[in-house]
Amino acid sequence: MQRETLAAQAVPAVGVAAMRYRWPGAADDCLSIEQFEIEAGERVFLRGPSGSGKTTLLSLVGGVILPQAGTVSIAGQPLAQLSAGARDRFRADHLGFVFQLFNLLPYLSARDNILLACRFSATRRARLAARGTSADAEAERLASRLELGAVLHRPAAELSVGQQQRVAAARALIGQPGLIVADEPTSALDADRQQAFIDLLLDECAEAGAALLFVSHDLRLAHHFDRVVDLVQLNRVVAEAGA
Ligand SMILES: Nc1ncnc2c1ncn2[C@@H]1O[C@H](COP(=O)(O)OP(=O)(O)OP(=O)(O)O)[C@@H](O)[C@H]1O
Ligand SMILES: [Mg+2]
Q: Where is each ABC transporter domain found (predicted)?
């Protein structure tokens, strides 16, 4: 555990180099990024107009899609060097995703949706054990911090959108992955919950030494972060953004 933390600090959480991505069938590249790094533990706010490629970049960082050229590395590991199965396992161990559409399993309870992240990752379970806690206890703790305690037993399909968003956050955070990637995670929350959500995300990332890549249109949230990155400036493709 300690060795893993030290190793994670020595290499960037995310490394993107000479990377180009074009969606299948598209006439033009969506993204062309010469260099982009997120340091271990760094909190980055990613902005850019609708259609500029923010979600696409997060999918590349997650290894969900692979670039046609260049490299994307997580904690020093180039994702394209892993087989599809190994990439899935690597993602489960090292990345927590909060998606724009939360991707909860509707028939599972909030608790089981949160625990799913641990079921697929022995590494996450081992990190919890090293802290003297269990997946169940940690799910309870996160749920209580996110004001989800009363709905933990309810199927995700019966939760409000804001509750689903918080379940997705707890699922990303449980077991302390080194990188949390969040795509518009506060869009469905009221102002008070938005603040509580950001506080929780930042606290948990700080405690775990996790880096945070956070996408939002809401520039009022930017001051919580170490750095603001504008994708239109980062991307060498002149996109017809904002359509
Ligand atoms: N699955 C896909 N297949 C083909 N093209 C796609 C796909 N997903 C996104 N695109 C295209 O890639 C470009 C960038 O889309 P992306 O979803 O990354 O933008 P975004 O910045 O996340 O926008 P928003 O702020 O609206 O979420 C758009 O032109 C979009 O049409
Ligand atoms: Mg998007």
A: 14-241
> How far apart (Å, rounded) are the C-alpha atoms in residues 229 and 112?
35
Buried b (16+ CB within 10 A) or exposed e, 6-20: eebeebbbbbbeebb
14 within domain boundaries? no
Query: What residues flank ion ligand 2 with Cβ within 5 A?
Result: 54-55
Instruction: For residue 19, tell me if it sits in a domain.
Output: no
Position 68 in a domain: no
* Mean of pLDDT values over 165-191: 89
Give, for ligand 1, the residue of 28, 29, 52 to mutate: max count of ligand atoms closer than 8 Å to Cβ. 52
Task: For residue range 135-162, list pLDDT tens digits in order.
Answer: 999 999 999 988 899 999 999 999 988 8
Does some domain include residue 90? Answer: yes
> In this structure, what CATH number is given to the domain that contains residue 96?
3.40.50.300
Ligand 1 atom 1 nearest Cα? 23
Sign of CA dihedral 104, 110, 112, 118: positive
How far is the first Cα of the chain from the last one, in angstroms, to the nearest whole number?
A: 46
Domain that holds residue 114: 42-63+82-234
Q: What is the pLDDT of residues 18-42, one digit of tens each?
A: 999 999 999 999 999 999 999 999 9
Domains: count for the chain: 1
